[in-house]
Design a protein that fits this description.
Elements lengths: L2 H22 L3 H5 L2 H21 L3 H21 L4 H10 L22 H24 L17 H11 L4
Helix pairs in contact: 1-3, 1-4, 1-6, 3-4, 4-5, 6-7
């Protein structure tokens, strides 16, 4: 499984746990708060970083497509008690095999445990990208111009590759 897929699933599990807790304690305002940051992470990091994965017809593209579909289905279920009409509209547009007549007839997703190492490593990688892009901007070096190297702390190679692509660094 690709590191981005693992991360977005872990990120969803974290959001799901928080929303479920606040719904169980009848705090609707607090239940809605974690959804927007999750959707921001989904669109600005996962989908943008996975764009090239969708273009190539291979097993990784299938995995990226399946993960995205699964996440969108889970988001519809998560939104159903908070935004019933929007979640129903999104649900009806999803091309899911064997889906129910309505999102409101679906069962609430079971709780999962999010691997904190995955979340922490990706947060560190995103922080490194932010700092590197800020340093480039301060130095007046455009992102289109590749840099020779960037030294990063100990991270998995898959995350180092993502950092290198995002910052446009050869090594």
């Amino acid at each position: 499984m690709h590191v981005l897929d693992k991360w977005i699933v872990a990120r969803w599990q974290e959001t799901h746990a928080e929303v479920t807790h606040h719904l169980d304690t009848h705090e609707l305002d607090r239940a809605a708060r974690p959804i927007m940051p999750f959707l921001d992470d989904l669109s600005t990091w996962y989908l943008r970083r996975s764009r090239d994965r969708f273009k190539v017809a291979d097993a990784d593209a299938v995995m990226a497509t399946e993960t995205t579909g699964w996440i969108l289905l889970q988001v519809c279920k998560l939104l159903a008690p908070l935004m019933p009409f929007l979640s129903e509209d999104l649900y009806q547009r999803l091309p899911v095999v064997g889906k129910k007549e309505s999102v409101h007839l679906e069962t609430w997703p079971p709780m999962g445990v999010s691997p904190h190492t995955t979340l922490e490593e990706m947060a560190e990688a995103r922080n490194i990208v932010t700092l590197a892009l800020e340093a480039r901007a301060k130095a007046g070096i455009k992102v289109r111009q590749p840099l020779a190297s960037l030294t990063v702390p100990k991270l998995p190679d898959a995350l180092k590759l993502i950092i290198a692509e995002e910052v446009n660094v050869k090594e």
